[in-house]
Specification:
alpha/beta; Rossmann fold; Dehydroquinate synthase-like, alpha domain; six-stranded parallel beta sheet; 10% strand; binds 5,6-dihydroxy-NADP; binds zinc ion
C-alpha cells in the first residue's frame, strides 16, 4: 500500500445561510483588503455578488472587484489581477464562483508574490514558491473541487496552452458552500460538474495498488451517490437535499480523501486538457468524451478493477466466466449514464464535427510536451498511446 499524507486544511462553512459568515472568516484568516474575483454574469444575476460586497462593507472590510473570468480561465486576466492587487495593496483574494474563478484567484495569488511572470510556474520553469496571498471562496458550482484542492489550471491564450500547477499553499483558507446557490445551474453545467467530480475519484480508483479497500469502498459509495443525485437535480433543479449531496461530494472527491494509499492516474485529465485548450469546451464534458476510450485502452492493466467497477458502481451483473466481458459492460454502462445526463461519449459528440488528424497530432504534441513526457500511471502512456486513444475517441 502506498504511503500517504492527507492534508485538507480548508475550513468549510456549509448550508443555507453560509455566506453570512464571509466577513468574520476573512478577518480570521488575516485579510484586511480583499480582491473579490468573479466570472461572467451568474453571480451578478443571482444577487450573490452584491450580497457578499454588502457583507464586507457592513463589516468595514475594504475591497476591490475584478470580474470577467471565463471557463478555462485565461492567463491575461490573471496578469491584470496581479497588477491590480499590487496597485491596491490587496492581501486576500475571495473567489466568488466555480473552478475557473478559484483557479484564476490562485494564479493571481501566486503571481503577486513572485518577481517574475506567473506563467513560469505553470511551465515548471521556476522555483517552488514559499509564499502566496491567501485565497478563499464562495462556491457557486460543484465540479472542479478547487475549493479544497491544491491545484489550479490556467489557459494561456497565446497558443491555446492549458497547464496545471499544484501546491498545498494554494488550498483555500475557507470555502463557503450554500447549495441553494447552485439551483440556477443549467442542466449541462450540472451534468458536466458531476462528471468532473466523479472523474476526480475515478482517476484515483483505477490504480494498480488495490490493497486499500477502505479508500476503494469510499470511492464506490461516492460514485453511486453522485449518479443517484444528478438524476434528482436534473429533474428538479431546486432539490436542496440532492444539490447538497453534489456540492459536498465535489469537495470530498478531490480533496485527497479518495487518493489515500493508492497511486493516482490523471491520464484522462491530461488528455482532456488538450481538448479544452484547443476547442474551449467544458472540462467535464471533455472528460466524458475521452474516458470510455482510455478505459478500453488500459483495462487489461488491472482487469479485476474494471470488473469491480462494473459490478459495484455500474450495477452490471458479474459474468464470472468472462471478466473482460463484464469490464466492457461496465464501460458501456458508463457511456449510457453519460448520454442519460446529456454528456458526450466521444470527441465528435463533444465538438459537433469530426476532429482532423492534424488536430490529433497537435494535441499529442502538447500532451507529450513535444514528445518528451508521458502521462498516466495505471498504464504509462507515451505519445503513440495518446494518439491511439484520441483516435479511438474521435467517434
Ligand atoms: O461565468 P459565470 O456567469 O459565473 O458562469 C459560469 C460558467 O459559465 C456558470 N456558473 C457558475 N456558477 C453558476 C453558473 N451558472 C448559473 N448558476 C450558478 N450558480 O458555470 C460555468 C462554468 O463555470 P466554471 O467555473 O468554469 O466551472 P468548473 O467549476 O467546472 O471549473 C472548470 C475549470 O476548473 C478546472 C478545469 O480545467 C476548468 O478550467 N479544473 C480545476 C481543478 C482544480 N483546480 O483542482 C481540477 C479540475 O480537474 C479541473 O481541471
Ligand atoms: Zn477535473
Amino acid at each position: 500500500m502506498k504511503d500517504f499524507k492527507y492534508y485538507a486544511p480548508t475550513e468549510v462553512a456549509f448550508g443555507q445561510q453560509a455566506e453570512e459568515q464571509v466577513a468574520p472568516l476573512i478577518r480570521k484568516y488575516g485579510g484586511t483588503k480583499v480582491l473579490v474575483h468573479y466570472g461572467g454574469r451568474s453571480a451578478e444575476r443571482s444577487g450573490l455578488l452584491d450580497k457578499i460586497c454588502n457583507l464586507l462593507s457592513q463589516d468595514g472590510i475594504p475591497f476591490v472587484k475584478l470580474g470577467g473570468v471565463v471557463p478555462n480561465p485565461r492567463l491575461s486576466l490573471a496578469r491584470q489581477g496581479i497588477e491590480l492587487c499590487r496597485q491596491e495593496g490587496i492581501d486576500f483574494i475571495l473567489a466568488v464562483g466555480g473552478g475557473s474563478v478559484i483557479d484564476s484567484a490562485k494564479c493571481i495569488a501566486y503571481g503577486v508574490c513572485m518577481d517574475e511572470d506567473v506563467w513560469n510556474l505553470y511551465l515548471g520553469k521556476t522555483e517552488v514558491p514559499k509564499t502566496m496571498l491567501p485565497v478563499a471562496c464562495v462556491l457557486t458550482i460543484p465540479a472542479a473541487g478547487s475549493e479544497m484542492s491544491e491545484a489550479s489550471v490556467i489557459t494561456n491564450e497565446d497558443g491555446g496552452v492549458k497547464l496545471g500547477y499544484s501546491n498545498n499553499l494554494s488550498r483555500p483558507k475557507f470555502a463557503i458552500m450554500n447549495p441553494c446557490r447552485t439551483f440556477t445551474l443549467p442542466p449541462y453545467q450540472t451534468a458536466a460538474g458531476v462528471t468532473d467530480m466523479m472523474m476526480h475519484t475515478m482517476e484515483r480508483y483505477f490504480t494498480i495498488d488495490d490493497d486499500m479497500d477502505l479508500t476503494t469502498d469510499i470511492a464506490e459509495a461516492m460514485l453511486r451517490s453522485m449518479m443517484n443525485a444528478v438524476f434528482a437535480v436534473l429533474k428538479n433543479p431546486e432539490d436542496y437535499r440532492y444539490r447538497a449531496q453534489i456540492m459536498w461530494g465535489g469537495s470530498l472527491m478531490h480533496n485527497g480523501l479518495t487518493g489515500c494509499g493508492v497511486q493516482d492516474d490523471w491520464a484522462t485529465h491530461q488528455l482532456e486538457h488538450e481538448l479544452s485548450g484547443m476547442f474551449d469546451v467544458t472540462h467535464g464534458a471533455g472528460l466524458a468524451a475521452v474516458w470510455p476510450s482510455w478505459a478500453r485502452y488500459v483495462m487489461h492493466q488491472n482487469l479485476s478493477r474494471f470488473v469491480r467497477f462494473a459490478v459495484n458502481v455500474m450495477q452490471v451483473p458479474n459474468d464470472f466466466t468472462d471478466p473482460e466481458a463484464t469490464a466492457l459492460r461496465g464501460i458501456e454502462a458508463m457511456e449510457r449514464f453519460y448520454h442519460a445526463i446529456g454528456m458526450p461519449v466521444n470527441i465528435k459528440e463533444l465538438i459537433g464535427r469530426d476532429i482532423t488528424d492534424e488536430e490529433i497530432q497537435e494535441m499529442v504534441r502538447k500532451c507529450s510536451r513535444d514528445y518528451t513526457a508521458t502521462c498516466g500511471a495505471l498504464k504509462v502512456l507515451n505519445a503513440q498511446d495518446m494518439e491511439q486513444i484520441y483516435k479511438m475517441a474521435r467517434g
